[in-house]
């Protein structure tokens, strides 16, 4: 199929290259994305008013696409806040601590508990939910604080967030950017997330045990840190109520998962089920804890959650707005200004690339992994996965297959690098809870994560 390129294609490609260059230099890309939207608007509409309006309308378009993800994360954070303050989270986790009797069991136990919790609560709230309870247990059995931080970090911000199978925020972003169903990206990500998770956590454990035996393990403790620093003003609930809620809440989320399978709920429907359950839990626990002030406190917790959600997604919105223009978003905003034979800017570039560059599965997989990792250098993880999805679709169009696998690979690379396992300023939640230096935690994670990315990329080559 002959592709007809226009100025829109070349300008879009030029801005992608520019954005990648800025990410490599660890510079913010928001202003460049806005400039890209404006420039594309000028070319498409040939009017100043249309291009200026296009900036605002593109933000609205991005928010409409992302609002479900923003809301679910905000609500989960709000709910986790009240569970921490009432001590319900401690009651939920305490029975599991009896199994953590050696440093090895503590490492894997804390990691697995963190992973499961992060799937439902998202990693940053999950760190606060379980860190204060499990960290003293780890120290008691001989697992260093830095070892506990590595486990919580790799299993939570790594495995759980890169798959994000319950809340589905990450696959929603990458799937939209690649023009694929969320379910396709989630299914394709399962073997990649599994390989990345196993290789990385095993490598990290091996390095930790080796250095502890050699006496070269430095714990990177910082003064004034640790779980104690993250303590909250507690609201005392009767023990029987606290214990009952500690059983009921996990059962409610387990029922949600069962309903997802039974009713074949995916994407927005699955997110809505989890979100509605979280709102009901938030309201019920707040009323029990605050009694006469329950009405006002429910709103206060929601405000805290929304502040967190928009703080996380504030940088994402303008970036996603630009990358949505690579697919259906362009026509929605600027009308049918592309050639009639066009299937979207990204798809056109992919087809054109296939005609001029000798691409294969190996080159595509390596390039998508590197692109995903670069997009994570800003320390967000989420801000760049729209680009990772767009690049994956471009290469999939060029080689004629593997769209879902390449998209999932870009997602895994971006989240593992930027979501909170390698970039020091993204490691602060886990580092603060454990009282260790985020720079030392990043250094400890570096080799295991790079080994995992290499192994995952090789596996993706055979799956494309």
Automatic annotation (TrEMBL):
Origin: domain of life: Bacteria
Record carries keyword Ribonucleoprotein: no
Keyword annotations of the record: Membrane, Transmembrane, Transmembrane helix
Keyword DNA-binding found: no
Bilayer-spanning residue ranges: 6-24, 31-60, 66-84, 105-122, 188-208, 245-264, 270-289, 301-325, 362-382, 394-416, 422-439, 446-463
Protein name (database record): Transporter
Provenance organism: Paenibacillus methanolicus
